[in-house]
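Example record

The entry below shows one chain as it appears in the dataset: sequence first, then C-alpha cells.
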Amino acid sequence: MRTQQSPQASHTLADSIDAVLPQTQCRRCGYDGCRPYAEAVATGEAINRCPPGADALIATLALLTTRPPLPLDPSCGQPSALEVARIDDTVCIGCTLCIDACPVDAIVGAAKRMHTVLPSLCTGCELCVPPCPVDCIAMLPAGRTWSREDARASRERHGARNERIARTAARAAPVSADSERQRREATVAAALTRARARRASFGGGLK
C-alpha cells in the first residue's frame, strides 16, 4: 500500500534513497536510471527492484522507508558479479550507437573509428550491447567489486551526461528552424533563377 507524503518529505527521502543506490544506471528496475527509481520508491514503488543492489540494498531501503524487506523481484533480473563491456576492435565499425547508449560516458571513440570501453568507468549496465549492429560487444568479469566511490563517480558522470544532452537539445531547436528557413529560401531562390532563365529564353525579363 502506497503512503502519501508531503512533497518536501518525499524529496528528502528520495535523496536518501538515491544516496544508497548503486548508480549503475542499468534500468533493470524499470526506470530511466537510479534517481528516477529513488523518486519512485520515495512515493511508494517497491523496494526490491534493483538486482545490482540485491538483498543488502533491499534491507537498507526497508530501513529508510520503514517497510518490510522483500525478496528481489525476479522480473528485474538476478544479482551477479560486476562485469564490464569490451569491444572487439577487429569488428567495430565505429557507428557510435554504443556511445549514445552508455549512461555514464564510459565509451570513447568517434564516427567511423574504433570505440573503446574504459573499464574503470563501466558500470556493467549492458545498455551498449543491444544497439550494436555487428555484435562486437561482450560482457566480461570485471575482477573487482563495485564500491561506493564507484557509485559516487557514476552518479556524477550520469548527471553531467544528462545535462549535456539537455543543452544540446535546447540548442537543436533554433538550429533546426534556421536550417528549415534556409532550405526554403534556397528553394525559392532556385525557382526564381529558373524562372528568369525561362523568361530570358523567350526574350522577356523578370524584375
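Notes for this example: Residues 148-201 form the longest helix (54 residues). The chain has a mean pLDDT of 86.
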